Amino acid sequence: MRKTKRFHVEGSNSLWQLYHTISFWKALRNVVVIELARYVPFFQWKLWLYRKILGMKIGDYTAFAFKVTPDLLFPELISIGENTIIGYNTTILTHEYLIDEYRLGEVKLGNNVLIGANTTILPGVSIGDGAKVSAATLVHRDVPAGAFVGGNPMTVISLPQQETTKRDS
User: Fold this and answer.
1) pLDDT given at position 1
2) What is the DSSP letter of 18?
3) What residues make up the domain containing 76?
4) Residue 167 forms part of a structural domain
């Protein structure tokens, strides 16, 4: 189950009420910074833009590949550990606007996580340390540490091997 907060709206659909939930200027700033960072070829520059301007929490040596799109409206709800790779054209969402409500949820990626190209990560999801997500996966629920997942809908392909202890007889 994804961990999101729900906010009910009255009247027109929630997306038409976008600027009741976020200021136009914040949205504009985020779009400009994210579009710039999607094309910047230097990882350190991307990390600086994401950390200092957008307020994302990102560990050292994390790499955002070309055209990765963090959430345009609430990027500050994204936390990523150290030494993680996020593949080409991946989208990380922390919001979803529906007809009569909108939802917000933090996205947390652990250390040493590998996200394959063209993956979409939905709001309220945690991905554990050392997990691997195959390309073109829709991550709609939490991923355990060390797991290998993939597909649409996402399924667990393998879990980490459990350490077995040898009993003396």
Assistant:
1) 72
2) H
3) 5-158
4) no
Residue 132 belongs to domain with CATH number: 2.160.10.10
| Measured distance CA(29)–CA(25) in Å, rounded | 6
Total structural domains within the chain: 1
* 72 contacts: CB under 8 Å, gap ≥ 6: 27, 30, 31, 34
What average pLDDT does the structure give for the chain?
95
pLDDT of residue 102: 97
Output the pTM of the full model.
0.93
d(CA 85, CA 132): 10
Torsion of CA 43, 47, 50, 52, to 10 degrees: -140
Note whether 7 and 102 are within 8 A (CB). yes
- Per-residue pLDDT tens over the stretch 9-22: 999 999 999 999 99
Residue 165 pLDDT: 53
CA dist list (Å): 80 to 14, 19, 101: 28, 27, 27
